[in-house]
Amino acid sequence: MSMRPSPEANAARAEEGVRRAAAEGAKLVCLPELYRSRYFCQTEDAANFDLAEPVPGPSTERLASLAAELDVTIVAGLFERRAAGVYHNTAVVIDRAHGYIGKYRKMHIPDDPRYYEKFYFAPGDLGFASFRTESAELGVLVCWDQWFPEAARMTALKGAEILVYPTAIGWHPEERDDEGERQHSAWETIQRSHAIANGCFVIAVNRVGFEAEVEPGGGSGIEAVDWEGYEPEAVGCGGIEFWGRSFLAAPDGRVLTRAPDNGEAVLVERIDLGEVEAHRRAWPFFRDRRIDAYDELARRFLDGEGG
To answer: 306 in a domain, yes or no?
Structure first.
């Protein structure tokens, strides 16, 4: 998806995409991280907390109605208002006629230029989980979580056959020429490695398009501008060029389908969940794990002196 300024417009476009995917035969449909809004974390602006909503709440109700109508399972990223002053970056699972069945709160929260998420989100406190749906056992993680092998392994050990990563990631335009392809390659490679190491499918669902950096208090200015199709140089400001390229990887790491980097797309791919069992039999990483030897992973750093 390419996000618009209006949350309602984004919700409507997401619904169009879900309907299109279902019409093409999809039974599991995944939306990007924070799909109802522009990526507001580029700046620290308390006014953006007004975008948050309770979970479950209005969006889960709307998605549940859609899932029941189309007989699909939906994974979607939302900005959760838990209480006054407590907010989470959350992914929800909506399962066909069963409706809302649970949520995952993003565990790893970045704090980098134009990714100031620590200002907005408390770290997740629900732990890692796999959700039993009519489509599959789904492990749901969010964006920055995708860089951590521990998160993928813990979720797979909970029973996940598919790891789903709603995502918002891209280039700083000023870095793209020198570093862009290396950054993208690293992003895809680490997730393909999760598929291999855990013998599961991996779905990464990213937004696409350029979103300008807006100074705090400048939200009303962007409401009047449609940035779609603008080049960063043309708008004369910073921002993030989200690289799209959503993809699906099989348990052996091969990429089954990949979206373009220059526009919206609905990708539908049939998978054989039997590959999970076959891969784990052939490459028995779970069997051969030395569970007696990993206690020190719970420490921040191993400096050789027990500190």
So the answer is: no
Instruction: Give all strands of the β-sheet with 86-95 in edge-to-edge order.
Output: 28-30, 73-83, 86-95, 99-105
Q: What is the pTM of this model?
A: 0.92
Domain that holds residue 241: 7-287
Q: Judge whether 200 counts as a catalytic residue.
A: no
Helices 58-70, 7-23: axis angle to 10 degrees equals 20
Buried b (16+ CB within 10 A) or exposed e, 10-37: bbebbbebbbebbeeebbbbbbbbbbbb
Q: Find the catalytic residue in 30, 41, 106, 211.
A: 106
Active-site hit among 41, 143, 213, 241: 143
Q: Is the pLDDT of residue 42 over 60?
A: yes
User: Structural domain tally of the chain?
Assistant: 1
Residue 293 located in a structural domain: no
pLDDT given for residue 222 in this prediction? 38
- Please list, residue by residue across 162-175, b when 16 or more beta carbons sit within 10 angstroms of its beta carbon and e when fewer do: bbbbbbbbbbbbee
Q: Is residue 297 in some structural domain?
A: no
Is 143 noted as a catalytic residue in this protein? yes
Catalytic site includes residue 33:
yes
Tens digits of residue pLDDT in 248-264: 999 999 999 999 999 99
Residue 99 lies in a domain: yes
Q: Which of 67-71, 101-105, 216-220 has the least mean pLDDT?
A: 216-220
CA distances, 70 to each of 22, 23, 27, 29, 62 (Å): 7, 9, 9, 11, 13
d(CA 257, CA 88): 30
Our CA angle for 135, 148, 82, nearest 5°, is 70
pLDDT at 169 over 90: yes
Percent of the chain beyond pLDDT 90? 87
Distance of CA 159 to the CA centre of its chain: 19
